[in-house]
Amino acid sequence: MRAYKPKDDVQKKAYYTDRFYVSPQVPKFSVEDDEVFAHDLEAIKAKVEVLDAYIQVGQMVVFIKPEDNYKVLELLRDRCEYTQLSEMSAIDWLAKSGGFEIFYQMLSMNKRKRLRIKMFINKGEAVNSVEKLFRSADWSEREMFDMFGIEANGHPFMKRILMPYDWQGHPLLKTYPLQGDEFAAWYEVDKIYGKEARDIIGPELRDTAKVDRYDSERFARLGHEVPKGTKITGNEPKNEQNYQEEGGVFMIKKFDKKDSVVIDDPQR
Amino acid sequence: MAQHKINYTQNGGLPVALTSIDKIVNWGRSNSIWALTYGLACCGIEMMASGASRYDFDRFGTIFRASPRQADVMIVAGTLTKKHAEFIKRLYDQMTEPKWVISMGSCANTGGMFNTYATVQGVDRIIPVDLYLPGCAPRPETLQYGVMLLQKKIRANHASRAQKAKRLM
């Protein structure tokens, strides 16, 4: 099992140390390049403050203030024909800038355009729910709460969606270990048998490839099986593998090819 | 005219077979292992294929039941998540004894490739397992072989004695 390394400051560290390496950037274009997007951006700018806007990979990205998200999405749905919220979630930037980036991916079937509304919130802040505008936001916002702990104000059922209700921690945070913290490691044992059962059941065996051929409690060497708990020396006699016991089984006749009849005539 | 004529004079002259209670009860038990439908993931598809006409589990007397109260063996086919762990324990407790558990596939055996926070690392952390089937996913032949081994195990036990209570702890 690999040792767990804390990932609290992993975003601050350089992950690549080549001095001459220039990380590739997806080129950004001005919104004026696209007539449809420029018109949409004008409509947004007329209503709320826009922090930044550009086109990347053919999609417009608009940065807004977090308190304006409901207004902007309502405008896009009712005035600009962006009738679908195809995806929404958050990105964990806690280590880098102390908060989350939340994005709303919108689709207009009439205009054949996709645009993305982005906003930045600080740690511990809640966002306005857009569930009243788009039904798809119902589960997406619950998932965002489940995975990041960001609550949506005005959501009708703000509960976890994937993890159990009594789960502790938010698994998609970058500080959350992949194999779980202590709560996650003992969750099912604690819940079913109680904390006192931890010593009996033991910790999780995380190395699934680990095989100890001298361990007769958990492993059996195929063809050389011994009773559970026997000390294995390595030169166990070979056991014959068969489906049935020696001498046959009560009331069950073994198939004998000699006694069988092959019917050649299918009509008989 | 009857096509199959019964010869009452063979085998010592009487249509009677002498045996012990143990053997006849074990014969009944081992040839009617009703399985609980427990398809949790892709292994469940292989389990269904074993039950369908090509592999035909019915000829072993293995009929899938949708209720734990009618089932003898629980075939845990697939990934067990931590959210689901309490329910597998509840269903196992609802099964009437004697009962057996087959852990089918890598995920049920050890957690398999899901070495994550949300997966139970082997169902034997929750319920006692009689038979582990390797594979990802095991072929229907593997499951059939597993059921035949389970039949062998049932026949080797004393039916007249109460099944030794299988408790994890």
UniProtKB/TrEMBL annotation, chain B:
Keyword Flavoprotein attributed: no
EC number(s) on file: 7.1.1.-
GO molecular function terms noted in the UniProt entry: 4 iron, 4 sulfur cluster binding; iron ion binding; NADH dehydrogenase (quinone) (non-electrogenic) activity; NADH dehydrogenase (ubiquinone) activity; quinone binding
Entry note: cofactor: Binds 1 [4Fe-4S] cluster.
Localization per record: Cell membrane
Gene Ontology cellular component annotations, sorted alphabetically: plasma membrane; respiratory chain complex I
The keyword Cell membrane belongs to this UniProt entry's keyword annotation: yes
InterPro entries the UniProt entry points to: NADH_UbQ_OxRdtase-like_20kDa, NADH_UQ_OxRdtase_20Kd_su
Cofactor(s) in the UniProt record: [4Fe-4S] cluster
Transmembrane region(s): none
Primary location recorded for the protein, binned into one broad class: membrane
Pfam families on file: Oxidored_q6
Residue ranges constituting the NADH:ubiquinone oxidoreductase-like 20kDa subunit domain according to the UniProt record: 42-148
UniProt GO BP: aerobic respiration; electron transport coupled proton transport
This protein's UniProt keywords: 4Fe-4S, Cell inner membrane, Cell membrane, Iron, Iron-sulfur, Membrane, Metal-binding, NAD, Quinone, Translocase, Transport, Ubiquinone
NCBIfam families in the cross-refs: nuoB_fam, PRK06411.1
Protein name, per record: NADH-quinone oxidoreductase subunit B
Classification of source organism: Bacteria, Pseudomonadati, Campylobacterota, Epsilonproteobacteria, Campylobacterales
